[in-house]
Write a structure and sequence with these properties.
The protein is an alpha+beta fold. The chain has 2 domains: 7-113, no CATH class; 121-223, Immunoglobulin-like, CATH 2.60.40.10. It has 5 helices and 12 strands. The strands form 4 sheets. A 5-stranded antiparallel beta sheet has the order 8-7-10-11-12, with no helix packed on it. Strands 5-6-9 form a 3-stranded antiparallel beta sheet. It has a two-stranded antiparallel sheet with strand order 1-2. A hairpin with a 2-residue loop joins strand 5 and strand 6 (133-139). The radius of gyration is 19 Å and the shape is globular. It binds zinc ion (ZN). Residues 21, 23, 26, 28, 78-79, 81-82 line the site of zinc ion.
C-alpha cells in the first residue's frame, strides 16, 4: 500500500516552495499559463516523497509510520524532471540527507525572497557529510560573480555556549558555480542540528558587503562607495 500525500499536503509543499523546484541547481517554476486556453493553467510540479511511499521504493524507511510517510515533513516540491531524477537507481544517488538540505535551503530562499522582495538570493552555504568528513559548499545561483567570499562553519553545542568554528576563504565565486572545500570532521562532529551552521560573508558587484546565515536571512552590514 502506498502512503500518498493528500491534496492538502501537496498544496502545502508547493506553496512553501513558491511553486518552484527545490533542487538548488534547477529552481525552475512549476506553474504557468496555458497559452492556448485563457481558462487553463499548466502545472508540472511534483510533491515527491523523500523516503518512499511504499516498500522497496527509493530511500524507503521502514522505521517511519504511515502518518510520517505521508506527512509534509517527508515531502519535497520538485519539477517533473527532478522528481524523476532523484528516484533513478532507486534513489541511491540522492540520499535522504541531501534532499532534506535541498528542501531546507529552498524554503529559506523562498522566505527570504518573500520578506525582502529580492529574487536574487545571493550566496548560499551548507555542509554535507561525505565519507566521514564535512564538505563545505558555497553556491552562487546568480548570474553575477561574488567577491571576497569567506565562509564559516559552526558547530552548535547548545544555544548558550560559544561556537567552535572553521573559516575558509573562497575568494571570488563565479556565476552559477558551486565551490567546495573539506573541513576537519572532528571540529564539527556533534551538531544538534544534524549538520553544521554555515555563515557566508561576501561583496556583490555593487561593492555592498553581505553576511548570510544558514537561515537565509540577509543582513546588509556595510555600504562601501565604489571609489573609496
Ligand atoms: Zn527541477
Amino acid at each position: 500500500m502506498r502512503d500518498d500525500f493528500t491534496a492538502t499536503t501537496k498544496r502545502l509543499l508547493a506553496e512553501r516552495a513558491g511553486y518552484r523546484c527545490s533542487n538548488p541547481d534547477c529552481r525552475k517554476t512549476t506553474v504557468g499559463p496555458s497559452t492556448a486556453d485563457q481558462a487553463k493553467s499548466i502545472s508540472q510540479g511534483v510533491a515527491a516523497h523523500i523516503c518512499a511511499a511504499q516498500d522497496n521504493g527509493p530511500r524507503y524507511n521502514s522505521e517511519q509510520t504511515a502518518l510520517q510517510r505521508k506527512s509534509a515533513s517527508n515531502g519535497i516540491w520538485l519539477c517533473g524532471a527532478c522528481a524523476t531524477l532523484i528516484d533513478k537507481n532507486n534513489g541511491a544517488d540522492f540520499k535522504e540527507s541531501v534532499l532534506q538540505i535541498w528542501k531546507e535551503l529552498h524554503e529559506e530562499a523562498v522566505f527570504s525572497e518573500l520578506s525582502t522582495g529580492q529574487s536574487d538570493i545571493g550566496l548560499t552555504g551548507w555542509c554535507e557529510e561525505e565519507n566521514g568528513s564535512w564538505i563545505l559548499r558555497i553556491k552562487n545561483p546568480t548570474t553575477a560573480p561574488f567577491l571576497d567570499c569567506v565562509a564559516r562553519a559552526y558547530r552548535v553545542e547548545n544555544f548558550d555556549e560559544p561556537f567552535a568554528d572553521i573559516e575558509v576563504v573562497f575568494g571570488t565565486i563565479p556565476p552559477r558555480q558551486t565551490i567546495s572545500d573539506a573541513v576537519p570532521y572532528e571540529n564539527l562532529e556533534s551538531s544538534m542540528f544534524g549538520h553544521p551552521v554555515v555563515e557566508v560573508e561576501y561583496t556583490d558587484v555593487n561593492g555592498i558587503d553581505w553576511l548570510r546565515e544558514r537561515t537565509g536571512r540577509i543582513r546588509k552590514i556595510e555600504f562601501r562607495r565604489p571609489f573609496d
